[in-house]
Design brief:
Elements: H1 3-19, H2 26-38, H3 40-56, H4 93-103, H5 110-113, E1 116-117, E2 124-127, E3 133-136, E4 141-146, E5 151-157, E6 159-163, E7 172-176, E8 179-183, E9 187-193, E10 196-203, E11 205-210, E12 215-220, E13 224-227, E14 232-235, H6 240-243, E15 250-257, H7 258-266, E16 272-275, E17 284-290, H8 294-304, E18 307-312, E19 316-321
Parallel strand pairs: 5-7, 16-19
Antiparallel strand pairs: 1-4, 2-3, 3-6, 4-5, 6-9, 7-8, 8-11, 9-10, 10-13, 11-12, 13-14, 15-17, 18-19
């Protein structure tokens, strides 16, 4: 799709969200009419967004996994003032919120205060002062605090692989909001997801302590631990090849639910991927995809599963049942 069309769709999405607001004025409506008449691409983009909007008239908040979109958690259907007789229809606050989320990019404050960060789809390698290495995955932010008695990394967001140079005088610790992971060897991965920290050990072992005091003295190579503030559990005999696939720019799915696949794809593309309707959320998918082109994975989903995909504004992907 040409960049001009993507820009027009973004503008159309902004207009639809604005005109559906209680704050829309007659001046806004006149400005919209001028924008619509200024370019045939504007009309085409508006028609596409408007068709999507009409389809959302039959979508309720229960059709969207609002737990994954905190900004929508309290959205309720409502009627808005008509834009004009031609554009008058019941409009959901949910639909307006979806479009706003699709066209406005937000990041947590930690991204701006961290020492190192990666943007969507970016990976980065860092060599620290002692020779230890960090390989950062997409959408990752971390800070480094090297002191005389310890080496501490704070992982604000995302995922990173750590290859640590041993130093008995200064332990190497990776800290998240849920607890600490202390290196007892050289190579491990730490990933933040929702309210949990996932630790995978590739070489030697680590010690894990949650913020509320639960401790795992030794998590050995080839195993994984998942912990929150209050809980700590381990997984044995994990697939190490699959666990390290992201460092080779690969996503590997083996009989994974569509919701899990979408969550992983979202890490490597800007915008949002929304699943409409509970009937398709647990469809299973197996495949290997490159992280550099998630559109290939989306096309495979559409070809392999009874799923229809619509892409709007270049940043909003809607998955629904065929």
């Amino acid at each position: 799709m040409p960049n001009s069309n993507i820009t027009a769709e973004k503008q159309a999405a902004h207009w639809r969200a604005q005109l559906s607001s209680d704050l829309a004025t007659e001046q806004h409506r006149r400005a919209f009419a001028e924008w619509l008449a200024a370019n045939p691409e504007h009309k085409a983009a508006w028609d596409k967004i408007d068709s999507f909007w009409l389809a959302l008239d039959n979508v309720s908040a229960s059709d969207v996994d609002l737990a994954e979109i905190p900004a929508l958690a309290h959205v309720k259907p409502k009627y808005q003032k008509p834009v004009s007789k031609r554009f008058y229809r019941p409009v959901f606050g949910l639909a307006a919120s979806i479009l706003v989320i699709a066209v406005i990019s937000t990041k947590p404050f930690s991204f701006y205060f961290s020492d190192y960060r990666t943007e969507t789809g970016q990976q980065r390698q860092i060599v620290l002062a002692d020779g230890s290495e960090i390989f950062m995955n997409t959408q990752t932010a971390l800070s480094v605090n090297y002191a005389t008695q310890q080496r501490k990394i704070y992982l604000h967001a995302g995922e990173a692989y750590f290859k640590v140079v041993p130093d008995r005088q200064r332990p190497f610790i990776v800290e998240t909001d849920m607890g600490q992971t202390r290196a007892l060897g050289t190579a491990f991965d730490v990933k933040l997801q929702a309210d949990e920290t996932v630790v995978t050990v590739f070489e030697h072992a680590v010690k894990i302590t949650t913020v509320n005091g639960k401790t795992l003295e030794k998590l050995p190579a080839g195993e994984r631990a998942v912990f929150s503030e209050d809980d700590l559990k381990t997984e044995q005999k994990i697939d190490i090849v699959r666990a390290e696939s992201w460092r080779k720019q690969r996503m590997v799915f083996q009989n994974r639910a569509l919701t899990d696949v979408v969550a992983e794809l979202e890490r490597y593309r800007t915008g949002r991927i929304l699943i409409l309707g509970s009937s398709i959320k647990n469809l299973r998918l197996t495949g290997v995809f490159g992280t550099e082109n998630t559109d290939i994975a989306l096309r495979t989903i559409e070809q392999s599963l009874p799923v229809k995909i619509n892409i709007l504004t270049g940043k909003l992907v809607i998955l629904s049942a065929k």
